[in-house]
Specification:
Belongs to the universal stress protein A family. This is Universal stress protein. By secondary structure, this protein is of the alpha/beta class. It has a single domain, classed as Rossmann fold. Helix content is about 45%, strand content about 25%. The protein has six helices and five strands, in the order βαβααβαβααβ. It has a five-stranded parallel β-sheet, sandwiched between helices. α4 runs parallel beside α6. It is globular, with a radius of gyration of 15 Å. The mean pLDDT is about 85.
């Protein structure tokens, strides 16, 4: 059904990521591509004005390495021939930018039940749905 599907996976929500990956496997065309994406949040961008201490670059780099190892293991486990993208930035904006850059047909994103904070700043899934240049499937 789809030639290119982007599957964002948060390292702290791997069980949701596997669920979404299973959906992507069922919807991808033969010869299509699944792009496993992890966005490493740039904590220093959020810390400006609130904290004096910067987060060490090593911490961000270690997060990127952990994400690569984890997504490679998922790829192997599911036998996916797609590829991995690790980006740094805000989650929703980065997901939407990659969807546009890759001319993706579909983004499949996991969602959780909103907590109080989500009502104030909005959830990542909500911001992806609102601004994504392609179809979005939200798995709850």
């Amino acid at each position: 059904m789809y030639k290119k599907i982007i599957v964002p996976i948060a390292m702290d929500q791997l069980e949701h990521g596997e669920s979404v990956l299973n959906i992507a496997e069922k919807l991808i065309d033969e010869g299509g591509e699944i792009v496993l994406l992890n966005v490493v949040e740039d904590l220093n961008a959020y810390a400006q004005g609130y904290m004096i201490v910067d987060f060490p670059l090593e911490m961000i780099e270690e997060s990127r390495k952990h994400a690569v190892r984890t997504l490679e293991a998922l790829k192997t486990k599911h036998g996916i021939k797609g590829r991995i993208e690790i980006r740094t930035g805000g989650a929703a904006g980065t997901i939407n930018a990659l969807a546009k850059e890759e001319n993706a047909d579909l983004v499949i994103i996991a969602s959780h039940r909103p907590g109080l904070i989500d009502y104030f700043i909005g959830s990542t899934a909500s911001r992806v749905v609102s601004h994504c240049p392609c179809a979005v499937l939200v798995d709850r």
